[in-house]
Design brief:
The complex is a heterodimer of chains A (about 300) and B (about 220). By secondary structure, chain A is α+β, with helices and mostly antiparallel strands. Chain A has two domains: about 180 residues, no CATH class; about 80 residues. Chain A is built from eight helices and four strands. Chain A has a four-stranded antiparallel sheet. In chain A, helix 1 crosses helix 7, helix 2 packs antiparallel against helix 4 and helix 7 packs antiparallel against helix 8. The longest helix of chain A is centred in the middle third of the chain and has 43 residues. Chain A starts with about 30 loop residues before the first helix and ends with a helix. Chain B has eight helices and ten strands. Chain B is of the alpha/beta class and about 220 residues long. The chains are: A alpha+beta (about 300), B alpha/beta (about 220). At the A-B interface, helix 6 and helix 7 of A face helix 2, helix 3, helix 4, helix 5 and helix 7 of B.
Chain lengths: ~300, ~220
């Protein structure tokens, strides 16, 4: 008999293939819980991501829609109104960066006021100012200089560049996006904590398995890998299911028209639909790192 | 391969073993005897690196156990086959998978040892129990499976703590024949046992030394063994 061979005899039936992670008990409660938690977290992450994207789009939309326009409000006695409006239009025509300017007609003014006073409003009986819609050229105009010139040459004409209410709206949308991103970070952190706790519980419950593996010369990396694979895979599958459910829920949100504002834009647009698909992969990476760290920590503590 | 250099082991200030010097060189066969609680298991666990010496040095394959990293210890353990008294197994794996576990951990599932698994199981009389789970096994079957697992990697050193305690005489001799064969191949063997008949049976086949633990010290046993 040659050294290194068993006295038990010659090669015989082959050993059935046995995956390394088979050493971990197959149906642990913590593993199922991990998948469920990952699904729930991924579902929430899809909403947080959709909110972040929608808030970003909303801020851009408000910025774009309002940045290129301004309004000159002309208040003057009825007999002086036409002259003042002409003077204002002349000033605007000479102002660099103003692409177009035109007074709103009574139909347009009626449409603006209709939400408050109804469609049968008689404008003639109201001392309304004349509104002049100003469209800026792409380079924009010097709003401060224009306001000063209007004050000097056309008293009663006031320039409103919409900045007074545009800035808070854009800032609010930006804050909303930050909040959504913070929620995403919290979801990631919570997922890591939950997976780490579940992995630690699984490791602690499998001390006998760990003891046997050490008995046969398994390195900590080998033992950790068996658990890490299990939890990473569970998290990946759970997160994939949660992501798909979240995307379906976002896609199924009823269209509420322009009046819905943010809600109408919650569903990702175009290529944004690809972004939620990264959630399962990211969740798996988080689970991998969390389980590995927890496993090595616990294995160092075990005798 | 494994050497004790004036090793003392204490637990909670109580000395369990004192001033042990011992060399498990290739091809040596040692029996360790002594009353229950004398320190036989402690000595085996020190030799396996499970316990640390309180004083002196335990050298595993030319490395001081105290200075070995966890990975170094794991690598050393792959060269040591051990049979504990309590024969620990992974309960959700079959008997065959448990016996093959050292191959899996060492990444040698396709090697010649894996090919010999079936015959090894047959040799220890467990061929028809290969699919059984450890909780379904009797004490004797567990001991046989533990010995099969200990030798499947053809380790350099075999440590066994009362490996035949639950076996009948015929099966005990059969298992010892396996260990003697491995010893003849150059493996070092250390067996803790109470069974004097077993010691005599082995001494009839190989030059085995018998050590006795008395008053926490290891001595060479007398000629009566």
């Amino acid at each position: 008999m040659s050294p290194g061979r068993h006295p038990a005899g010659a090669p015989a039936a082959g050993l059935a293939a046995m995956a390394a992670d088979r050493v971990v008990p197959p149906a642990g409660f913590t593993a199922r819980l991990t998948a469920l938690a990952a699904a729930a977290m991924a579902f929430l992450a899809v909403f947080a991501l959709a909110l972040a994207l929608a808030a970003g789009r909303l801020a851009d939309r408000w910025q774009d829609a309002l940045a290129g326009t301004a309004t000159v409000r002309v208040a003057a006695p009825p007999e002086a109104m036409a002259g003042t409006v002409r003077a204002v239009l002349a000033i605007l025509a000479q102002t660099p960066g103003v692409a177009a300017a035109r007074p709103l007609d009574s139909a347009e003014q009626r449409a603006l006021l209709a939400p408050w006073f109804g469609p049968d409003l008689s404008l003639e009986r109201l001392p309304l100012p004349t509104l002049i819609d100003v469209v800026a050229a792409p380079a924009g105009f010097d709003a401060e200089g224009l306001a000063m010139r209007l004050a000097a040459e056309a008293p009663g004409a006031i320039l409103d560049d919409h900045g007074r209410w545009r800035r808070p709206l854009v800032a609010a949308a930006g804050r909303l996006r930050l909040l959504a991103l913070a929620a995403l970070a919290l979801i990631g952190g919570t997922t890591a904590a939950m997976v780490a706790l579940a992995a630690e519980a699984a490791l602690a419950a499998n001390r006998q398995v760990i003891g046997v593996l050490r008995l046969v010369g398994a390195r900590d990396a080998y033992i950790a890998r068996a658990f890490v694979r299990r939890f990473t895979r569970r998290t990946l599958f759970g997160a994939a299911a949660g992501t798909l459910a979240g995307m379906a829920a976002v896609a199924a949100m009823p269209a509420a028209g322009a009046a819905a504002g943010l809600l109408d834009g919650l569903a990702p647009a175009g290529l944004d639909w690809v972004l939620p698909l990264a959630i399962p992969g990211l969740a798996a990476i988080v689970a991998f790192a969390a389980t590995r760290a927890a496993a090595f920590r616990l294995l160092r503590e075990l005798p | 391969m494994i050497e004790f250099r004036n090793v003392t082991h204490r637990w909670s200030g109580v000395e369990l073993l004192g001033e042990v010097s011992l060399q498990l060189a290739p091809g040596t066969f040692h029996f360790l005897t002594g009353p229950s609680g004398s320190g036989k298991t402690t000595l085996l666990r020190l030799a396996f690196g499970e316990l640390l010496a309180s004083a002196g040095e335990v050298v595993l394959f030319d490395r001081d156990r105290q200075r070995m990293s966890r990975d170094d210890l794991a690598r050393a353990r792959r060269r040591i086959g051990i049979v504990h008294q309590d024969c620990q197994f992974i309960d959700h794996l079959s008997l065959a998978e448990n016996v093959a576990l050292p191959l899996l951990v060492a990444g040698r599932v396709a090697g010649p040892e894996a090919q010999a698994l079936a015959e090894l199981l047959a040799w220890v009389g467990l061929a028809d129990r290969r699919a059984a789970r450890p909780p379904e096994l009797s004490g004797g079957e567990r001991q046989r499976a533990a010995l099969a697992r200990a030798v499947i990697l053809s380790p350099d050193v075999i440590l066994a703590d009362e490996p035949t305690g639950n076996l009948d005489w015929e099966m005990s001799l059969r298992l010892l024949t396996l260990v003697v064969e491995l010893n003849r191949m150059g493996k070092a063997v250390l067996i803790a046992t109470h069974d004097l008949n077993l010691i005599r049976a082995v001494k009839a086949q190989v030059a085995a030394r018998v050590l006795r633990i008395r008053d926490r010290r290891v001595q060479l046993a007398g000629a009566e063994l």
